[in-house]
Amino acid sequence: MIYRSHVLVCAGTGCTSSHSLRIIENFHKKLEETGYDKEVQVIRTGCFGLCAAGPVVVVYPEGIYYSHVKPEDVEEIVNEHIIKGRPVQRLIYKEHDESGVNTTLNDSDFYKKQHRIALRNCGMIDPENIDEYIAFDGYKALGKVLTEMTRDEVVDTIIRSGLRGRGGGGFPTGLKWKFAKAPESDVKYVCCNADEGDPGAFMDRSVLEGDPHSVLEAMTIAGYAIGAQQGYIYVRAEYPIAVKRLRVAIGQAREYGLLGDNIMGTGFKFDIDLRLGSGAFVCGEETALLASIEGGRGEPRPRPPFPAVKGLFGKPTLLNNVETYANVPWIINHGAAAYAAYGTEDSKGDRLRHEAFDLLKDTKEINFIGNVETRDVPYGCCDVLVADGFTGNIILKLYEGVAGAMMANIKSIFKKSSITMLAAMMVKGGLLALKVRMDYSEFGGAPLLGVNGVVIKAHGSSDAKAIRNAIKQAKTCAEKNIVGTIAQSVRDAADAE
Predict the structure, then answer these.
(1) CATH number assigned to the domain covering 130-338
(2) Structure pTM?
C-alpha cells in the first residue's frame, strides 16, 4: 500500500515513559475517525536522539519535527497538519530560542552535524518490522559475506576499517576477530555485551530498541568469520523494551531464514539466543559476563587465557559490545576505506596510519601538510604522497585507467569529422604534451626507496618503451647518488638528535 504521509513516533525508553504509546494509539483512532487511516501510516520507531525534546513526532514527506508532544496534541496535528497541510507551529522543535525554528528534522544543528553509522536506522524504521530493516539494506552485508567473501577477507576488511571496540576499551576489533578465528576448535561462540550498566546510559539501549537487526546481522557475519555456529546476547532484564524487540527480531530472522540452518541457502548455520542479566555492574567485564551466561556467579576470571582462546564453556569466544557490532554491516557494504576515512584530521584510519601520521608530523625537516583527499592528488597538492602499498597501488591503477580512458575519448572525439580532425591538428602540440604527462611508459617506473641500492619498480604491463625509460631512471639515480644522499640525510638527522 502507498501512503501519502508517514507519521513517525518515537517509542524508545525515554519517550515511552512520557506516554508516546498513547500518542500512537491516539493517532490511529483520530485517523480512523477522519477517514485518513488508508492514506497516512503511523510508525513507531526507536530513539531519535533528542530525548530531552521527547516525546518526538516526525511527519513525512515534509520532515516536520514536533517535540514535547502530548497525547492530547494528536487531534490538532491531524486536523491542522494532516488534513489542512498547516504544520502546528507551537509544537515544532525549536533550538536555543523562539527565533530558531526548524521546520525539518535534518535542519536542526543536532542532526546536520552527524553522519550516522551505528545509529543509521534509529528513528527511521519500525524496529519490530524486519521488512523495513531489509528495505534499508538490511542483511545485504550478510548476503555479500556468505556469497562473495572468504572468512579471511571478512576479518581483513574489519582490520583495515580501523574499527575499535566502542565499549570504552578501544581494542582493534579486527584483531580480536583474527584472534578468535585462529584456534582450531569443534565449537566457537560469538557473544554480544549488551549489559550497559552505567546509570542512565542509553547508547547501546538506543541501538537495541531502534535497530536490533543490525546487531543480529553483525553477529552472524562474525560467526561466519571466526567459524562459530552459536551466538548469545547478554542484556539487562531491566531493559524490557530492548529485550522485547530483540526477541521479536530473533524470531523474525529465524522465520526469514536469516538465522538457523542453511542461512540464505549457503549451508552456513548460525543461531542467536538471549541471556538476561540481573543488573550486576561487574558483568560488564567480559569474563564475568561469560561466567554469568554459563549460569555461574558473575565474577571476573584471571587472564590469560583470553576469551578468544578459552572463553564461554571453555571454547574460543568472540565478544564485542552492541555499538561495535552495529558498525559492521555498514563497513561490509561500503568498504573498509570508507569507514577509515572518518575521524579527526590526526586520528583517521587504523593504527598503522596513526603511527605514520605522528612520525611525519614530528619530523621537522619536512613540510608535512597532513592527510590529503584522493581527489586533490592530480592537482599536485603535495610533492610526496605517503600511503601503504595496497592503497597506493589502487590510486596508481585508478589514475592509469582514467588517463587511458580520457585519452581514448579525446581521440574518438577528434576523429568524428573532418572539422574535428582539423581542430586536432591545431592543438596537436598540446595533445602530445598531455599524452606524455598521462602515459606511464614515459616514466618507466619509480624508485623503490629504503633499500641499499638503486631499484626501479616498473609496471607489470610495461612495453619496450617503458623498460627503456625505467633503465634510464636507474642510470640517473645511480649518477646522482640518490641512495647515498638519502642515507647521509638520515645519518645527519640522527646525529642532530
Answers:
(1) 3.40.50.11540
(2) 0.69
